[in-house]
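Summarise what follows for lecture notes:
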Amino acid sequence: MRIIVDVEGRAGALPNDETIEVPVLVFLTVFEAIKVSGIGRTTLFEAMRTGALPARKIGTKNLILVADLEAFIKALPVRVPAANGAR
């Protein structure tokens, strides 16, 4: 997802007919990743520990790229319904 930022009318900005694409949320904190994905904290940290979910470190904060979280979720096994209709 991208937001188009119109810089028209700003002093010293781009010419009036140009826009800049600004990415929305490049990375998430662990807390944010838990909230948006629904994955539990322990599971998320285990995935980071094993390398299944790459994380970057800045100071004491772990940062997860949105693209890495998406790739991790897409790589999870797909649930196949039981043949007898059981849940």
Notes: The longest helix spans residues 41-50. The mean pLDDT is 80.
